Each structure stands twice: as C-alpha cells, then as structure tokens.
Amino acid sequence: MTAATEPVLNEIIHAPNRLRICAFLGTVDRAEFSAIREMLGVADSVTSKQLKVLEDAGYVKLSKPTGKGRVKTWAALTPAGRGAYKVHVAALKALIAG
C-alpha cells in the first residue's frame, strides 16, 4: 500500500468513548442506551454527548420506538458508520504493524 491509499484514522471515531461505542455496536444490530452507558461506565450525559457526535456524523442512527411503558432509546451503526469504523480499525492495525 502506498501512503496515498493507506487507511486514515477517523478523528470522530478515534475518541476513546466513541471508539468503544462503535466497537460495541459493531457486534450487534442495535443496542439500548442503558447498555451502552453501562458498557462505558459513564453518566447519561456523557453517553448522550458521544452518541450525538456519532449521529451528527451519520455513523449512528438513534430511534425511540413507542409502545407500552417507558420509551427507550436505541442506537445502531449506519452503513456509513460500519464502513468508517472498518477503515479506522484498518488504520489502527496499520499503525501497529508499522
């Protein structure tokens, strides 16, 4: 691979909490907000902020299906998000490989 075609680190995904969210969502179809918050071990506000950054970038889709009981927020990686995460991981692997 030449320098021009090497994967590039994604600054949006690279932040530790957002990288962990993408890694987590990369293994499931979707996840409930509280599961993401617990996985991160942070407050609701921190989780919300990180999901909002990913949503604004088009990497995560948030939904609040209505039904009986409390409304829950669900998050899922978009196709663009899955692609960006895959490229970011490739860039990390390239860095490690030297």
UniProtKB/TrEMBL annotation:
Name of this chain's protein: MarR family transcriptional regulator
UniProt xrefs under Gene3D superfamilies: Winged helix-like DNA-binding domain superfamily/Winged helix DNA-binding domain
Domain Winged helix DNA-binding: 18-96
Pfam families: HTH_34
InterPro entries on file: WH-like_DNA-bd_sf, WH_DNA-bd_dom, WH_DNA-bd_sf
